[in-house]
Design brief:
The strands form 3 sheets. The chain has a 4-stranded antiparallel β-sheet. Helix content is 38%, strand content 21%. One of its GO terms (molecular function) is DNA-binding transcription factor activity. InterPro entries: DeoR_HTH, N2O_reductase_NosL, WH-like_DNA-bd_sf, WH_DNA-bd_sf. Keywords: DNA-binding, Transcription, Transcription regulation. This is DNA-binding transcriptional regulator of sugar metabolism, DeoR/GlpR family.
């Protein structure tokens, strides 16, 4: 079972049962409890369930309306690339990728209390402000340009660059560079930019 399928199964089970033990999920999905904890981490950050002793419980029904598009460009977010901003009023804005996430983050940085993105290799949630970003790589994910990939570890980003080209940037450097390139190139996917 793919991780995305497993997470969807977890969503269904939590919604159906309201309270689920980690051990039950592990047994039913035939994966380790550590895998379940990793799968639950981004779902817990969405706020519709909370961690309890030995399990999770439903706090509110997850949104059943269709997923809204990216806050910047309107594209449907790919869960492997998303960048989320948690704002002071507890709203969560989702960008389809680190490119859009960094642009939006710069626009509203005084309102942001937390930003998270996905590590390109491990697909784990990481702090966007502590992540490392790769730009100008040969890998094309057919998302916004200039393409920006996020990595939790600098050495992993550097290894990626050795194989696929590009440059490694810190959070502040990536935010500045994306903004500069957008001004320079006037990318059509961001008309409001």
């Amino acid at each position: 079972m793919l991780p995305t399928e497993r997470r969807e199964q977890i969503r269904r089970l939590v919604k159906k049962r309201r309270n689920v033990k980690i051990s039950e999920l592990s047994q039913e999905l035939q994966v380790s409890e550590m895998t379940i904890y990793r799968d639950l981490k981004p779902m817990l950050e969405e706020g519709w369930m909370k961690k309890t002793y030995g399990g999770v419980t439903l706090v509110q029904e997850p949104e059943t309306s269709p997923v809204l598009g990216c806050i910047c460009c309107g594209r449907q977010p790919d869960p492997r690339l998303t960048y989320r901003l948690v704002l002071m009023d507890q709203r969560i804005e989702t960008a389809c990728c680190s490119h859009c996430g960094l642009l939006r983050h710069q626009q509203i940085q005084d309102e942001v209390i937390q930003a998270i993105c996905q590590d390109f290799f491990t697909n784990t949630t990481v702090s966007a402000m502590q992540a490392w970003y790769v730009m100008e790589t040969e890998v094309d994910l057919r998302c916004c340009q200039p393409q920006v990939l996020s990595f939790e570890q600098k050495h992993t980003a550097e290894k990626f660059v050795r194989g696929f080209g590009g440059i490694v940037l810190s959070f502040a450097e990536a935010m500045t560079e994306v903004y500069r390139k957008m001004k320079q190139d006037s990318c059509s996917c961001h008309d409001s930019f």
